[in-house]
Design goal:
Helices cover about 40% and strands about 20% of the residues. The chain is built from 5 helices and 6 strands; from the N terminus they run ββαααααββββ. It has a 4-stranded antiparallel sheet, with no helix packed on it.
Length: about 140
């Protein structure tokens, strides 16, 4: 089955020219694709992590196209992406910390050339996850 053709006008700020053809610019493309797929948050996360788009560009494009098809879901995805968490797993962990009223945690803390995803209360526990794996530990008085 071929995808349905969609026809609409776009603000000039959301258009670019590729090989002489006007096309939708990358921030709006990311918003549209992310809003139409079940794994939309992963699509948006990847575009952000690979620095193909920036949060401010996504937000501006969303505001210019707020009434467009799929933009309500794109807004929810972008709100999640603007969270200091860098992945869906981190967002879930942060949500659980809030839900269970565990406070004192800090996110994205620099440590020895890395960024800890979470630093616990009194700096005695930390967590860092990468590419689906996670490392965490108790600092045993070292003051991570």
């Amino acid at each position: 089955m071929s995808p349905a053709a969609k026809r609409r006008s776009f603000p000039s700020e959301d258009l670019t020219v590729v090989r002489g053809l006007p096309v939708v610019d990358l921030p709006l493309t990311v918003l549209q694709v992310a809003s139409e797929h079940a794994d939309g948050i992963e699509i948006m996360d990847r575009a952000l992590h690979e620095r193909r788009v920036h949060l401010t560009d996504l937000r501006r494009s969303l505001e210019r196209n707020a009434g467009g098809v799929g933009m309500q879901r794109a807004r929810m995805l972008l709100d999640a992406a603007e969270d200091p968490s860098e992945s869906e797993a981190e967002r879930l962990f942060a949500r659980l910390l809030r839900e269970y009223q565990i406070d004192g945690w800090t996110q994205q803390v620099p440590f020895c050339g890395y960024r800890l995803d979470f630093r616990g209360p009194r700096s005695r526990s930390a967590s860092r996850s990468t590419a689906g794996s996670s490392t965490s530990g108790i600092a045993g008085g070292t003051g991570i």
